[in-house]
Protein 1
Amino acid sequence: MNETIELLNSHRSIRKFKGERLGQATIEELVRAGQAAATSSFLQACTVIQVEDPDKRAQLAECAGGQAYVADAAAFLVFCADMKRHQLCCEMHHAEMQSGFTEQFITATADCALFAQNVAIAAESLGLGIVYIGGLRNRIDRVAELLKLPDLVYPVFGLCLGYPDQDPEVKPRLPLDVVLKKDGYDDSGDLERIRAYDDNVREYYRTRTGGNKEMSWSEQISGMLIKEARPHMLAFLQRQGFLKR
Amino acid sequence: MNETIELLNSHRSIRKFKGERLGQATIEELVRAGQAAATSSFLQACTVIQVEDPDKRAQLAECAGGQAYVADAAAFLVFCADMKRHQLCCEMHHAEMQSGFTEQFITATADCALFAQNVAIAAESLGLGIVYIGGLRNRIDRVAELLKLPDLVYPVFGLCLGYPDQDPEVKPRLPLDVVLKKDGYDDSGDLERIRAYDDNVREYYRTRTGGNKEMSWSEQISGMLIKEARPHMLAFLQRQGFLKR
């Protein structure tokens, strides 16, 4: 295993950061590394909003359900799926853009995630810690307003970055044979594999919380999925010009 | 700049591979590195299908619009957004899963992209070349059938891996100030920046093709976006149980 793979395998989310800031040159280095990721059909559909304004940070932390590290992290980036610049390209060439396709939503969303993961890895390679903030989608309309996002742009997730002030364990992942299949989908046997994994996850939480939390993976997932999942999302995205057809 | 960031910045798609195969241990090492990526709410919503069967490979190459390297690459992986295993978790706990939310589609799709990008970087760190195959979505119904994908699973993209038998240049990316904004979205000035970038891209294609192709970025984008984008996508995804509300 080489150093890069060791780095990838050592990822854990960091939610407590030292006060030390990041220089703008570092942030730009990270974003350039993000741009180097593959992009679907060369669309380059990701725009990053670096939020420095403390008041905006505080409001975004609220939007994310009160995650204080959104306000406290050395840097906070919001990755936006952006088809507006493609509309600009069409205008430059007097062409009428066909927008609102689900396919475009997939490519723009995937572009952001590939981009962001490069930023995350580059950051971790510099000794920084990161945590993705999907919680921004709790109040996605308010986030879009705060960041002045126009039509054809939506915030996929945020990313906190900073020097770690904690050293959590790596969280155990599903057994390999649950996530890797050969030649076709076949989940026979996965039930038993998930039961074995449940024991690992229960043990992980027990150790980490000194016995205060003992929850298996399947319990956690089923507890989450009996509830509605951000039911405002489709209407919001359609208002922004996505997922209309 | 450290070695990891250099590796990220040196990415280019590889579409011509040497015959040398990859051992199963290597593929498993790459997939484990993929699993180590962040996952939204611990959902772990990515399943990888490793396609070894030569007939299936050939048919997938056809689905992708005749991309021969899908058949020829040392390995071909299909990254599937998978909420079926969460249904299994709900069944284990006699809970009724609320599915079909757009939010779940976003998290599962993003999970796959984060996972895949870790696989891609791990592969490149081992001297392998990669290319993402979004073209699978041309004939996504056929791909789902070939790979026996059940409800609540969809193929986001494929990934070819192998030892590079070509050495293409890194493709120039948009200027940093087009993709990185501070505190809010503001694209004033982007038109001029894109015009300058257009010259870079035209030069890149001219050099790469010995003068046979001279196309700017904005021309390429506008030429693509005047057409419908895989208009079958929404109906397919809804049939699979996604994007219903």
Note: Chain B has a mean pLDDT of 97.
Protein 2
Amino acid sequence: MKITLAQLNYHIGNFESNLRKMLDAVTLAKEEGSDIICFGELATCGYPPRDFLEFRDFIARCMDSVHALAAAAQGIAIAVGSPCVNPVVEGKDLYNSAFFLFDGKVQHISHKALLPTYDIFDEYRYFEPAHEFSTVEYKGKRIAFTICEDIWNVGNDNPLYKVCPMDEMMKDKPDIMINLSASPFSYDHAESRISAVRANVSKYGVPMFYVNHVGAQTEIIFDGGSLVVSPDLQVFDEMPYFEECIKTYNLADVQKGGINNEQQKEKYRLMHDAIVTGIRDYFGKLGLKKAILGLSGGIDSALTAVLAVRALGAENVWGVLMPSEYSTGHSVTDAKDLAVNLGIRHDIVPIRSVFDVYEGLLNPLFEGKQADVTEENIQARIRGMILMALSNKFGHILLNTSNKSEFAVGYGTLYGDMCGGLAVLGDVYKTEIYKLAAYVNKDGEVIPLNSICKPPSAELRPGQKDSDSLPEYDTLDPVLFQYIENRIGPAELMEMGFDPAMVNRILRLVNINEFKRFQAPPVIRVSNKAFGAGRRLPIVGKYLS
Amino acid sequence: MKITLAQLNYHIGNFESNLRKMLDAVTLAKEEGSDIICFGELATCGYPPRDFLEFRDFIARCMDSVHALAAAAQGIAIAVGSPCVNPVVEGKDLYNSAFFLFDGKVQHISHKALLPTYDIFDEYRYFEPAHEFSTVEYKGKRIAFTICEDIWNVGNDNPLYKVCPMDEMMKDKPDIMINLSASPFSYDHAESRISAVRANVSKYGVPMFYVNHVGAQTEIIFDGGSLVVSPDLQVFDEMPYFEECIKTYNLADVQKGGINNEQQKEKYRLMHDAIVTGIRDYFGKLGLKKAILGLSGGIDSALTAVLAVRALGAENVWGVLMPSEYSTGHSVTDAKDLAVNLGIRHDIVPIRSVFDVYEGLLNPLFEGKQADVTEENIQARIRGMILMALSNKFGHILLNTSNKSEFAVGYGTLYGDMCGGLAVLGDVYKTEIYKLAAYVNKDGEVIPLNSICKPPSAELRPGQKDSDSLPEYDTLDPVLFQYIENRIGPAELMEMGFDPAMVNRILRLVNINEFKRFQAPPVIRVSNKAFGAGRRLPIVGKYLS
């Protein structure tokens, strides 16, 4: 038996495009003499469809795609993920299902039992979990279909669910496990994915074919890396990361095993490729081409520009330098050097004249009050305004250049440097920014060394440095990481050896700035806990604040 | 037996304040000779605690409050909602529980079985559902405790769950049902709440004591309206809306029944009171006092100002008029009249001088391009900038004045009139704005009639009217309501008689503007489907767009 895995880049709600891609893959698989081709979870509509699932029309269009695929399932079987109406009145109205199609018809439907409802996942919001389990007999082989999370309760010290669907299906003695997934990227996820698949093969003793999505849906990046694990627990194949791939496997070869194609992975390469994918698909799926961003001469905007150029091409990225009276001479030079290195259009729009008019306008109301953060915010907002004006006039989308450390402690101006359609580096801590910049510069200086080496500064008042307002990033980031990624509270942080006063200060900063993050752009998610849909906190909360 | 219900205004994560309120209520109930006092769902920490629940420290502090209440449970029993650690390794780590405290100790814990995971609710994200059910024997009476959603599967045509917890508990033949709730307001929710409680009393034949939260947690408003329903299905008592209330009932009287205290409800009075509560608690719980807003002379900003004055007092509301060359003379007069009616500080800051400088600065880059929406957005952003500068300098929080129709179709400028800490009218359609304004003016003209009667206009270009860009609101709002509140898709809308071209145009506008709403301020929720946490849609979706 030949089994094809199709690791595709779907687009949420774009039924035509998703179906066309799948039909093309079916044609290819037929040419290769495949017996069955497998697509990802909810492949008809893309993942995550979110509240579109509440529209009957949306579900009907998913079913139209299923039926179109069924019609194409002649001489080949097709396994595809799609929502499915729950015929029973009690419980949620939908299942998250794997449709097995053959001979022009839907032959079998398996429902997902384990519904991830944590971080960015909201599946219990929409779906009823499967209560019954069955397998499929096809060409003399028995296949157990599972969907994504269904296999993640195995080999887990703190299982989130009380059942393991494969435990139930083992009564049928399946020959093969096929898992249709939509498993998003984080820089540490591929390892756990391989472990989970291996744990299942180890426990159940049959090979697993695991097919993932690839490509970005705003914040969420699917990295691909689809897997075939043979009964000897070797990674028979691991598909490429961040690109589409359609590949056919001979089951006999997989069962024999003895081949290991596990890939090397490196955090900053993965992060880099994920962000480039995130930018490319954000623009591509919204039908956009061109980006604009402010270039301050600092490392964050420089790195954002590089990633944008790699995603969209130099001809589609426009850098704007907006020096103020507090900008150092170096800032302009460094920004220019970067633009020249990248070959992108750049313009200089000094903000002093606008600032002066605002000052004149507001001074009568400021009634002799001292200059404070207000004046700093005005400068940041003038820059946001200029960028948005150019964005509106020319249709370039503004890229936000804030990093995760800044978002965490609220070191940024709402409607100023927090503007943008997409926060490219919003899930990358400042200390990681340096490492990502080093990765970018590995084959030669793209980001000027001066942008990397100088002390970080917002340059909104004379001689200002980030470290005037914040702990040094080397001190700040480890606390943020433990608090945000690992949900470690104050007492435990202090037990870990972090300074109590600093812990209290940092946690307070994080918590009182929820109101700012609420209005931040969507953040490309590269860690296992990004700001945005995966981290939900109340604005009026009074905890640690 | 005497039963006290305590309908309190909790504050998320403010353990000291929540505990103090509850202990004060216990003292009061003891003075009234009560046998048991009941607080709301998750009362120790406030609702919704969201991802704070992922911190061990947060749960420990909830348990500290439970133990402090247990210590006070001398001569009186206490029922209080709080998270509870799930001792079993399989499944989620927490339960959402009702603690029954007496004689200084935790005597019994009932867990919630039905975990709402829809709209603004994410309970399955945190909690394991109860799998076992038991009742409590106290002073010769058997009590069945349920938590909020647990009773909502009864009397429901499309039940979301497969079990009804009370069905299980009826084997113990309970004498009383007590439900600890945190059931948020929408203008049509009180009726369904009474129906749900009545359906339970009718099905199980014993009286129900239902205690709710009151007060706002950013977007979410709890309206109170706690209920006592006697076995004859009469509403023995319905507590006041939008205020705290502690009241003791004699069980014998309730069982006898024959008394109906059901309140009259009127949509716009409820909406008005909910929004005033929303503003008051947003400021109060964040430790803030003063608000600022732009007054355009239009109905939306006028209504926002009135509601702010009612929530915060005239001395704490500051109106800023920012006329441009396209503002009509009436606009300034109408805004001034309103400010005088309300007795609030108001200032005039014309925006022309700033606009001219931006134009001079950007013209070289605009390369002879025609004026378009860019110039309109610049004006809106100058206003946002001025308001934010005053907000930063004086610590007044900016109130956003956008309405739901505008948010829906993206008729607003990001970082311009979409700025603000709280969107006061963001869940009120334009056609409802008029009715709410009429309610505000019922005892005399507060909002100038001219602001109500003139055609809506953004006044960003000569002679502009909203109806140049949008269908008339009488046409627009019914389609939006069916699409947003009722999730009716295009084909069904056309079947309902709406014009196909208009339906397609409106739905497309809603869907392509997801990116704007993503960065909108939190919206005070008054309907059953508000923009924000209760409505989750992908930005890169290609559905109906």
Note: Chain B has a mean pLDDT of 97.
Protein 3
Amino acid sequence: MNDIKRALFIGRFQPFHNGHMYAITQILNEVDEIIIAVGSAQLSFYVNNPFTAGERVEMIRLALLEKNISPTKFWIIPVPDVNNNAIWVSHISSLVPHYSVVYSNNPLVKQLFKSANVPVKPIPLVERSEFSATKIRQLMIEGKKWEHLVPKSVAQYIKKIQGPQRLKALLMKDE
Amino acid sequence: MNDIKRALFIGRFQPFHNGHMYAITQILNEVDEIIIAVGSAQLSFYVNNPFTAGERVEMIRLALLEKNISPTKFWIIPVPDVNNNAIWVSHISSLVPHYSVVYSNNPLVKQLFKSANVPVKPIPLVERSEFSATKIRQLMIEGKKWEHLVPKSVAQYIKKIQGPQRLKALLMKDE
Amino acid sequence: MNDIKRALFIGRFQPFHNGHMYAITQILNEVDEIIIAVGSAQLSFYVNNPFTAGERVEMIRLALLEKNISPTKFWIIPVPDVNNNAIWVSHISSLVPHYSVVYSNNPLVKQLFKSANVPVKPIPLVERSEFSATKIRQLMIEGKKWEHLVPKSVAQYIKKIQGPQRLKALLMKDE
Amino acid sequence: MNDIKRALFIGRFQPFHNGHMYAITQILNEVDEIIIAVGSAQLSFYVNNPFTAGERVEMIRLALLEKNISPTKFWIIPVPDVNNNAIWVSHISSLVPHYSVVYSNNPLVKQLFKSANVPVKPIPLVERSEFSATKIRQLMIEGKKWEHLVPKSVAQYIKKIQGPQRLKALLMKDE
Amino acid sequence: MNDIKRALFIGRFQPFHNGHMYAITQILNEVDEIIIAVGSAQLSFYVNNPFTAGERVEMIRLALLEKNISPTKFWIIPVPDVNNNAIWVSHISSLVPHYSVVYSNNPLVKQLFKSANVPVKPIPLVERSEFSATKIRQLMIEGKKWEHLVPKSVAQYIKKIQGPQRLKALLMKDE
Amino acid sequence: MNDIKRALFIGRFQPFHNGHMYAITQILNEVDEIIIAVGSAQLSFYVNNPFTAGERVEMIRLALLEKNISPTKFWIIPVPDVNNNAIWVSHISSLVPHYSVVYSNNPLVKQLFKSANVPVKPIPLVERSEFSATKIRQLMIEGKKWEHLVPKSVAQYIKKIQGPQRLKALLMKDE
């Protein structure tokens, strides 16, 4: 059990897309198991955070199973925010299984884990401008094609829960 | 008791104005009683939220009594925010008497209540651009006439608690 | 408006009973209006706090109207707890209309309001051992008669929402 | 996807033991998938709550894989407490995938889900007095045998993280 | 600056007494500076936590100056509780200056700091049964002599803020 | 003890600079002691709030000792934010020693303390545009000279904890 190499990978996954999928596949070439922490778990039904943590957990598992990644190789754990960066590493570490490396490109995340003596490695990226959750939400709002930017099972799931309709409704603010 | 039709009407009422008054009058044509939920109850002494929940409760009752609406027909209940939309309907429902319909024009509110199987109806609006809390606060800040946009008793009350002075002071930021 | 004498009366009202009713009647002999603050508003579905704030607001209004107390003479406002006694007076004051006197027999409440320079007067009590919310909940649990200890309309309301059944269910703990 | 029958099973799992294992096996005879919600996720390093949510997630997965339960049939999700029972069902529902039935023997849990129109079924129990987390923690504290009451992989894991030593240390209170 | 040896000493100090004074004197024989963290800073006006954090900060400084301890050798910092032990070390560390050793006899505290790789040393104790904050509060409540158990300046300060009267009032529960 | 005149001075001190130093020196000409409340204590590792409360406490004490201000004349106390302005004065008052005057130029702060009957005096300012924490953080980010804007000991301390590097890292956002 001591020999397992486990990576922590943190995101909001609003929604989970092919860029996330690519990163996970690459990380799994370097480690035995990956913990996918679903951040800002308490946020949903906002334009920038439309999906609940439960919905995001579900879409991530669908995507990984679709790619034939063994479920013994990944953990999907919702993690609510804390408003104090100084306690954030402890907070997340108390909610997920033990890990030995963090993959992140976020400077704050890198700095916080480094000062807690956790090794940090960069996330392998691919065609970043294409695979962006912000862009995908924008395409949904505009009624354009977004399905090709996410795994097939995620597209199906988002349609089943009427994700684009939810996003459009959230956008129509009226004070 | 089972036959009473009660509506839920949610606002921040910073301050309560003639547009709110009109909506309440119209809603009371359709239902027996109205619950007026005073949202963001924990916020006060901000430029966008100058009045405490207690002050807002007081100005709303003054206005409704001024219009000779029977106090047996309305409930005024402060409701603090929660940071998680997914629990918001449960939160508000635990603080107010039972209701059977919600009046709202806010897309998020409509979506959240609909997914909780609560019927939602649109708020009857009148001359909306005139009756806007944002505009009224702006007029107070600029020292212009705002009193004609709110019920007479509300204008009196806001003057008594020196509302315009409070707003002007809050505006003068100096880091 | 300045001449109105308004009292603050705080309780949990789990449930509202004849002792509360008596106290309110007595207080209304001494002041013009009474604010009934429904404390621990966030608690419900516990053995010691079975009813939601909304249910308590509703049963209190039913009781006061049953006694022909004019609804222009009372305010019923839910107030959630804060975990810091030092801020409690400010917290409650921000949620209710302005008041000039507090009625309480609780030593902590008396001390906190006195140190905030708010006059505190004792609550007029009657047959205290009979009219106790704790005792009434116990009678409900034991399936004994409790209805005579609360106003008639409160008894009706509690039966309608199946209060005794709720209490019995909550009691059956099973780790 | 619509035809999957998914059950929600909630516990604190301090620690996960053979009684939990038995219940999960039985529930999986009745449904397709089970969501194991790890409650009180924010509590750890207390005598009654010694293990972090991450440690509990890890021991549960070890146990289920040991019993050859396919990881496609279960979800393990940490859920922090909320202090307001009235919002608890919404809170938990926002953190886990969609479910259609809850298994619980706890009267409060049963009542809360029933009033949210979620069907509740009883947890199949076996030799309950033997398999109790409270009893297991007590045995650890007393230095007696406890390993036979939990799955083998859980016993190994608890020893690896020095669970009994942690518990004994937590017990030695000295104000 | 790097050569300063700084110790962290945590207590609730309800009130600060001669046992605390003795411990601080002894610790200052071993280190250059001591950080006195005033725990449960958010609690006050409870029978077990009668004094505010500000009052406790003030009484501690009075006591240390009375003993001619140079104010360049100590820091007094209020620290509110967090409900999650797993983040407690990070939380306290973000509120106080850097330290290199913790003095504590509390098993939980020792365990949490050790697992964060902070050295922990035992607090030097003297005549423990005599010097106990619980006992001192009890003596105040019973109207007996307590002044000899605390530094002279602390006794003066507690009398000035009418501490014993506050405690007695808090004790008289009613409802 | 009653004759001590104590002032409250509130800031975020991100970082502490010569303008703060000047204000404190001037205030100490008018009062016996100054309480320096370190606001937003829970924030750190943000571009606008890079330093922890503990780091800010430490740099303030270094600066005051550098200017030969006696440590018996000042108190440095971290104060976390509350999200409700109406309780803010009570909150801060519970965390700091008793004070009789507040120094502030912030309109909200002035209004809140005035309505709590605390006298408020203006902060003496000097060359304000030069001495601005926002400007100093900007200079750090741009790699320009900032050291002359803060006390020498603060510059040393910030370099020791690699403050400018932290700020630059925090700036590099990447979704």
Note: Helices of chain E lie at 18-30, 53-66, 88-95, 107-115, 133-142, 152-160, 163-171.
